[in-house]
Every structure is written in structure tokens, then in C-alpha cells.
Amino acid sequence: MSVELRFIGSGDAFGSGGRFQACLMLSGGGENILIDCGATSLTAMKRSGVDPSSIAAVLISHLHGDHFGGLPFLILDGQFSRRESPLVIAGPPSIEERTTAGMEVLFPGSSKIARRFDVTFSELPEREPTEIGPAVVTAIPVEHASGAASYGLRVEYGGKVIAYSGDTEWTDTLIELARGADVFVCEAYSFDKPMKFHLAYETLRQNLHRLECDRVVITHLHQSTLDRQDEIELQVAHDGLVLPL
Length: 245
Description:
Blueprint: E1 4-9, E2 23-27, E3 32-35, H1 41-47, E4 55-59, H2 65-68, H3 71-80, E5 87-91, H4 95-106, E6 119-123, E7 130-132, E8 135-141, E9 151-157, E10 160-164, H5 173-178, E11 183-187, H6 201-206, E12 216-219, H7 223-226, E13 235-236, E14 242-244
Parallel strand pairs: 3-4, 4-5, 5-6, 10-11, 11-12, 12-13
Antiparallel strand pairs: 1-2, 1-14, 2-3, 7-8, 8-9, 9-10
């Protein structure tokens, strides 16, 4: 089986276009892994026929609810579905504390209940390739305020390189992030309006010549940007899109 990248969720924080929040799945290069797990991700996985217990690792770009808020539900689903295989969750500093706090807010006592499977948290060091499950992950800082470090992620998986911007305004670290990638998945929240901490499609387009990667796919579009898709020259992700790599 070849490596596939599936957009389980391709939306923004507000469900623009009826899309699920950020959640990408890599398969075919070993065990399945998720890149981000927004609050709607468990529903999105089940709607798309993905068994949540098949996920071996989750890589989190930053600690906003539309990117990591699905973790409490993923963990609880494993508990109630009698999952036995371990789950590794890797992300910015405080990933464990923030996930545990979320579990306690949503389902008090749930973080302390004994489970049949181990959940291991790992804080990703900046710019240091780190083995997480079947992947090697490099976290590269980007410009987005989230109460902790925010990262773009380079994921080496099954002989392929997937670069993912997370959420960020334009920063030249995106050039570093995308260099040599088979695909660069990049947010383009607005169409041409500059925004603090988010990227406009027009800004990305103007910098495409600086990105040394095979393909660029945009995601995390606001409704105003979705409404102008006929003006967009790049591939736009949608829920259910599968990219063979």
C-alpha cells in the first residue's frame, strides 16, 4: 500500500463551509497517524469510516481547540471501545497539561481513570528530528499565539515528507518547513486581507516561488475565502480528500 494523506477535517475553527476542524491522517507507511485533532475529529473519523483505535500517534501543531480539542474525545472513545493498543501524543510544551485540563473540564475525573491502553505524551523539541511512532517529526516555530509554542511540522513517514504549516502568518520559516517536501499543506485563512497570526492566500501565492516542494495544498479557509475558490490557483483541500504520495 502506498502512502496516503487524508483530510479528515479541512476546516477552520468556526466550521466554515460545514467542514470539520483540522485533522489529517497518514496511512500506508506503517501505523496510522494523525496530524492535528480538532474538537470535531472523532465524529469526522467515524463518518469517514476510520477506526479511531487504528491511530497509533497524534502530532499536534499548536494548542488551540480546533487543532487539539479532539484529544479528550479520542482518549475516551478508546476507553469505552476497549482499545488495547498504545497511543502516543506529541506536540508543543504543556501538551499533556492542556489535554488533561480539557478532559477534566469536559468529563470530570476522566483523566484519572485506569485504561486498558497506555497514553504517552511527548513534547516536541524545536528543529530536532524526533521519532514518534512510525514517523520522524521536526517541529519548526511559526507565528501564531496559542498560549504555548506553535509549530509547523515536517513529518517523514513511509519514505515521504509531509510539511504542515499549522496556523501562522507569513514567516520565512515556512520556506525551511516546505523545503524538499512531497506535499506542503498550508493554511490560507483569508483571501487577500492581512491578518495577525493567519496567512492570506495572496501572500502565499506571492511567495510560491520561494517554496521548494513538489506540491502545495491549502486548508483552513474562512467562508469568505471559500466563496472565492474560482480565483484560487492552488489545490484546495476538502473533507475526505485523499492524496496518494
